[in-house]
Amino acid sequence: MSGIITRRSLLTTGALGAGALLTGCDKFQNGPSTRPILFAGEKINYHLARALSNRDALAKEYRPDQMSPIFRVNGTRNPNTPTYNAMVAEKFANWRLKVGGLVNRPLEISHQQLLAMPARTQITRHDCVEGWSAIGKWHGPMLGTILKAAGVRNTARYIVFTCADLYSGHNYYESIDLIDAFHPQTILAWAMNDAILSVAHGAPIRLRVERQLGYKNAKYVMQIDAVASLAGIGKGKGGYWEDAIDYDWYAGI
Question: Average pLDDT of the chain?
Answer without folding.
Answer: 85
